[in-house]
Write a structure and sequence with these properties.
mainly alpha; two-stranded antiparallel ribbon; 13 helices; 4 strands
Length: 325
């Protein structure tokens, strides 16, 4: 039964990712905005729903460290594991707006979380805590990000050129149909990730893996499965903008929207989340920036993707105590 759940979950993840990709492309063409903008907003928020539910529920139940840990762990997994694995299969190419604005915004948001969480704010607060004021600031920041993305998405330089056939096809497909595909795709991703995660956890328990290993490896990665498939499938279909937009947009939404909402509900203490974990999260965005500016010359190559994925493996082994610093 557990193996069946895993197989069905993977099938739903793949099917949902394809629906989401088709819907996102349709929305972008119909609204004449960039596919990156759709990936960084609609797709990113949709695939971040598992993290949103886990973090908000944890905040309500007083488990603040789970709330913050879920976001920090997911952001690390999104770049080092998902972007790394995707780049190993299909090199990810950056456009000018990614290098000049999108990646720096993601880096600035990650640094903002470190500033707020490590209590370097102007209004003070408890040590190693996100206060309600911090949460409101993060939510205002997400509103500003959405405004920026909408403005950039409609700019002439951001919109991809479409030929007359594509434009005619977009006009023939009503917007509601594309939005329905997006909703069904997100639903398939969330349901598929739940089934895959439940089956994997039970199977891991059956073979005798510890709860620590299950929590760090399966649960943390399980909530990011929607991002994995929502990036991998578009990249394999030549839609790099959606894949990259989903990763960067998810990381931004995780911090500004999810932690902003959670901290507004109740102040969040870092608990077991250390400055080292925060540093790894920031280093992931720095690595993408270096790939864009220096190393990969506006792209993440297969070799760089392998390095990204290797860093995540080393980080996971360090968390498990297999590697001692």
């Amino acid at each position: 039964m557990y193996i069946v759940m895993i197989i069905v979950g993977l099938a739903l993840l793949t099917f949902g990712a394809n629906l989401l990709t088709n819907g996102a492309v349709g929305v972008a063409k119909r609204l004449r905005v960039s596919e990156f903008m759709i990936g960084a907003t609609i797709v990113a928020v949709g695939t971040s729903m598992p993290e949103f539910v886990v973090s908000v529920q944890s905040a309500i139940q007083g488990q603040a460290d789970v709330s913050i840990g879920n976001v920090v762990g997911s952001n690390i997994f999104n770049i080092y594991a998902i972007l790394g694995l995707t780049s190993m299969l299909v090199p990810i190419t950056f456009v000018r707006s990614n290098v000049r604005a999108d990646i720096p915004i993601c880096l600035a948001v990650s640094l903002l979380l470190c500033v707020l969480a490590l209590d370097m704010t102007l209004w003070g607060g408890a040590h190693n805590e996100l206060s309600r004021w911090d949460g409101l600031l993060l939510l205002v920041g997400y509103g500003a990000f959405l405004w920026y993305m909408i403005r950039q998405g409609r700019s002439s330089g951001a919109v991809e050129e479409v030929n007359s056939n594509d434009e005619q096809e977009a006009k023939q497909k009503p917007l509601w149909r594309s939005l329905l595909l997006v909703a069904l795709g997100i639903g398939g991703l969330v349901l598929g990730s739940d089934m895959f995660l439940d089956g994997s956890i039970e199977l891991a328990r059956r073979v005798g893996l510890s709860e620590a290993v299950i929590g760090i490896v399966f649960v943390a990665a399980g909530t990011s499965l929607p991002e994995l498939f929502a990036s991998l499938v578009p990249a394999l279909r030549g839609k790099n903008d959606i894949a990259l937009g989903n990763i960067l947009g998810s990381n931004i939404a995780n911090i500004l929207l999810i932690l902003g909402t959670s901290a507004t509900i109740t102040p969040l203490r870092l608990g077991g989340i250390t400055a080292a974990d925060m540093a790894v999260m920031v280093s992931a965005v720095v690595a993408v920036l270096l790939s864009a500016f220096v190393i990969g010359r506006n792209k993440i190559s297969r070799f760089e993707g392998l390095i990204f994925f290797g860093i995540y493996v080393v980080y996971t082994l360090w968390l498990l105590g297999v590697i001692v610093a």
